[in-house]
Write a structure and sequence with these properties.
alpha/beta; about 20% strand; Helix Hairpins; 4 domains; 5-stranded parallel beta sheet; about 45% helix; Beta-Lactamase
Length: about 500
């Protein structure tokens, strides 16, 4: 076998980009400095790859501009033309054009001979057009890249003018609100969620604050869904200034922080539970024993025949108040103590039938119409039946008290993705927005009596059984509370696979 000695042409090994305009400069001057600066620019070389300076015709003692030091230089025209066949233009770069007559006489007919003014004007014309087109392409690419990055952000992003009108927005807004971008352009930012969203701001409007101060601002807004659920949004606004420092645009970013707020509240709730546990321990040792003694002595005084009616009434009040305090203390200690639910089968429909059979008696006296809507058949749930019944009783009592002048009470069962549920819905006064976030907090109550532990205990028991509680309310229309428990699966009782 013989080796292949064929060698490819030099042009295939080192392909040369075709040069349509090769310029050889003659002499020096300010125009040559400008030309050297122009050819040193990356954007110019990218815009005009077919144009180059092929050679310099200079005297031996003349130094070329720094940007042209790598260009071949010659002392006479004939060697230059022989060595640089790609040269098509001879340019006299002196201020007075002293070489023009000689170049016209000695240059081949195929070559153009130009003076410095003509070269400068020529490049000024073609550069302004081509570079403008190049900048437009680069700007278009930058805008496309910026839009792609902004559209990947999960938060809503709006670009607003000084009047609060939307001039641009990202894809996330359209995915959530629907419609095309053109449907929202020109509308005010408050139109996105409605005036209620802005009026529920916990402080000054961040857009107006940025417009007034020219600095970044942020606030928390709340939004109530048509289902009566509350979501929290943190709104950030950032100023956009022009080169003169004038505020021309405002970027507004809206971030849904409902999940994070919920986690923070759960952490706060756990800290509060720890404090309640310590308080319950102190109460059991330091307060309940003296209170028991007070109640005992008051009871003894009531049985004493020596008391007159006035003193007997005072002793009765002492006894009743001591019993009320003892009830509150027991509720507090029971709330702080782990419930240790029994894991078993919970028939939600049976619990509702059993509970509402007793609770309807009070409804008739309160002018409350009670309805039961049971889903049949309904899977069994995992949890403690007695605790679930106690939670239902708490919800029904709250619903009855929310309708002092009568109304409608409906208890439903069913199954959703979250699990098996019992829902208690009333047509009462609803829960005001300013206290909704506190309704499941321990010791929070709008009633004169009680320790404020009913809903808090309900939430605690359901969550200890692995379930969840959902609240929906609208002020003046009513409230709905739903208890979720996990369904009993076919594998719950199955032996573990080997």
């Amino acid at each position: 076998m013989t080796a292949n000695t064929h060698q490819p042409p030099l042009a295939e090994l080192h392909p040369v980009r075709p040069v349509r305009l090769g310029i050889a400069t003659v002499g020096t001057g300010s125009s040559l400095e400008l030309l050297a600066g122009l050819f040193s620019r990356t954007d110019f070389r990218q815009a005009f790859p077919q144009v180059c300076i092929t050679a310099l015709l200079l005297d031996d003692d003349t130094q070329p501009p720094a940007g042209l030091a790598h260009i071949p230089r010659y002392a006479q025209l004939a060697p230059l033309l022989e060595a640089q066949p790609l040269t098509t233009v001879l340019a006299d770069m002196t201020e007075d054009g002293r070489h023009m007559a000689c170049l016209r006489r000695e240059a081949p007919p195929r070559m153009a001979v130009l003076d410095a003014c003509t070269v400068t004007a020529f490049f000024s014309i073609i550069t302004s057009e081509q570079l403008c087109r190049t900048c437009h392409v680069h700007l278009s690419h930058a805008r496309t890249l910026f839009a792609a990055l902004i559209d990947q952000i999960d938060e809503d992003i709006l670009l607003l003018d000084a009047e609060g009108r939307i001039t641009d927005l990202n894809k996330k807004v359209l995915e959530r609100r629907g419609g095309a971008k053109e449907d929202w352009l020109g509308r005010y930012c408050c139109d996105l969620e409605g005036q209620d969203f802005c009026s529920a701001c916990q402080g000054a409007c961040p857009f107006e604050e940025t417009l007034r101060t020219g600095a970044k601002a942020e606030q928390i807004h709340t939004r109530v869904t048509p289902e009566g659920k509350v979501s929290y949004h943190r709104v950030y606004t950032y100023p956009v200034h022009d080169e003169h420092g004038t505020l021309t645009r405002i970027i507004e970013m809206r971030r849904d922080i409902t999940g994070r707020t919920n986690m923070e509240r759960k952490l706060h709730q756990s800290e509060k539970m720890a404090a309640i546990g310590e308080l319950a321990t102190y109460i059991a040792h330091e307060i309940r024993n003296p209170l028991f003694a007070i109640g005992g002595f008051a009871n003894a005084l009531l049985r004493s025949p020596s008391l007159d009616d006035n003193a007997r009434e005072k002793a009765r009040i002492i006894l009743e108040e001591s019993r009320r305090l003892d009830t509150i203390l027991r509720s507090t200690m029971n709330f702080a103590k782990p419930s240790d639910p029994r894991r078993g089968d919970v028939d939600m429909n049976h619990i509702v039938r059993d509970t509402m059979g007793l609770m309807r008696l009070n409804d008739e006296k309160r002018s409350i119409t009670t309805g039961v809507d049971l889903t049949e058949p309904l899977p069994l749930a995992r949890g403690d039946a007695d605790m679930t019944k106690q939670c239902l009783i708490n919800l029904v009592k709250n619903a009855q008290e929310a309708m002092p002048r009568g109304g409608s009470l409906t208890v439903r069962t069913g199954m959703k993705q979250r699990g098996i549920f019992i829902q208690v819905e009333d047509t009462g006064t609803g829960i005001p927005e300013e206290i909704r976030e506190n309704v499941f907090s321990p010791f929070f109550s709008t009633k004169d009596k009680g320790a404020g532990l009913g809903l808090a205990m309900t939430k605690k028991l359901i969550e200890e059984m692995g379930g969840a509680v959902e609240l929906q309310t609208a002020e003046g229309k009513g409230t709905s509370v739903t208890l979720f428990l996990q369904p009993l699966l076919t594998v719950d009782d199955a032996p573990a696979a080997l």
